[in-house]
Every structure is written in C-alpha cells, then in structure tokens.
Write a structure and sequence with these properties.
5% helix, 4-stranded antiparallel β-sheet, 175 residues, mainly beta
C-alpha cells in the first residue's frame, strides 16, 4: 500500500527535490525545487507536514533560489548545500532557526555540489565542482569541510565565536 501526502500551502506549486531520514525519529526532511522551503514530514502523525521558509537574501537569484542540493541530518540539525550560491545552511531542530556559511572560492564558476557528515570527526564535508566553464578549470574542483563543533559554538555564542572553522583543500588536481 502506498500512501500519498498532499503538499498543500506553500508547497502546492513546488516539488520535493532532496530528502533525508532523521536518525532520531525516522521522520523525513526535504527541500523543495523552488529553493524556498525546508520541509519535515512525519508519516506517523496524521500526515502533518511542517514547512520552514528559507531566510535567504539570495532567494530571488533564479526560479530555484540558491538551488538546494545535497541534504544531511544529524541529531541536532538539518544541513543542506545550495548549488548556485555555495551556501551551506544549518537548521537547528530545537530552535527552528537557520544559520548559514558561505564557502569562499576563487571563481564564480565553482558550484557547491555534495555534502556529508562524518560523525566520528564532527565534520561536514563538501565538494566544490567547476562544471560550467569550458574549458574546465580542474584546479577549481576540490573538497573541504566545516568543523561542526565550531559552527554550534558560533550559533550559541556569536559574539565570542565570530567565525566557523573549516578547510578547503588545494592542489587535488595533482594527485
């Protein structure tokens, strides 16, 4: 038996793009194709879908906003990368608030592609890809990570912890 969930309200004219199961309660988090919302579905709770509007100032860049791409969920937060803006957003599941980190790159031709969480090191890894400009600049495609402990500290105490620690690797084209 397949059940259908009606995407009404702000999601009625959108489509689900990426989804991830929450490791805490097996609910489902998802982003919409319009790049405007983060959704949370609980199949065991009367088909209720919660919708959180993204706070992005760059949401009007295109019909897909910053183009939400890869989505990951851990115990306390939902993370997703925006392909078009190279922002990684963090949604705190307890406070229902967003925070974001912009990934600096040398050229606007580089896009944020995939993210994943390494719980052993408390890092959120990401890939940067130069998929647009021809000829491709292989030096622009690389990997990096954000230290999640420093991001949590920044969110909790922004005046004492003004920055979020991270690394972007260079020289991978030589491997």
């Amino acid at each position: 038996c397949i059940e259908k969930f009606l995407l009404d309200g702000p999601l009625s004219k959108s489509k689900v793009v990426h989804l991830e199961t929450d490791p805490i309660d097996d609910t489902v988090w998802f982003t919409d194709a319009g790049g405007r919302y983060l959704g949370h579905a609980n199949p065991d709770r009367d088909k209720v879908i919660e919708v959180y509007a993204l706070p992005d100032s760059h949401a009007n860049l295109s019909v897909a906003g910053g183009l939400p791409w890869s989505l990951r969920v851990d115990d306390g937060a939902v993370y997703f990368g925006e392909y078009g803006t190279r922002h990684i957003l963090r949604f705190d599941k307890t406070t229902a608030t967003f925070d974001e980190v912009w990934i600096p790159v040398a050229t606007s031709q580089v896009a944020l592609h995939s993210i994943d969480i390494d719980s052993a090191t408390d890092r959120l890894w990401f890939t940067l890809a130069n998929e647009v400009q021809m000829p491709l600049d292989r030096t622009a495609s690389t990997i990096g990570y954000i230290d999640l402990a420093s991001w949590r500290e920044h969110v909790a105490h922004p005046l004492e912890n003004e920055t979020v620690a991270g690394v972007i690797y260079k020289g991978l084209e030589n491997i």
